[in-house]
Design brief:
Layout lengths: L8 E5 L4 E5 L7 E4 L2 H21 L15
Length: 71
């Protein structure tokens, strides 16, 4: 499980016929899944991969801010 506590926004996409999850604080960090449970599992994997790649590239990893005002 990811030790970071980023906000995850999930929603149903009629266009794609799947659930979508986004992590606003990690640009481009998105996942999909056929069920809510699957999309949450997938986004946790993608969040960790996003962070791992950022570390490898020497990029700054944003600190989680918790609930975002615009979400």
């Amino acid at each position: 499980m990811n030790k970071y506590k980023y906000e995850i926004i999930s929603y149903w996409s009629d266009e794609d016929n799947v659930f979508i999850a986004e992590v606003p604080e990690l640009p481009g960090c998105m996942a999909d899944g056929e069920t809510y449970q699957e999309v949450i599992q997938n986004i946790e994997i993608i969040m960790q991969e996003w962070i791992d790649v950022a570390k490898e590239l020497g990029r700054k990893i944003p600190e989680p801010k918790g609930k975002l005002m615009y979400a």
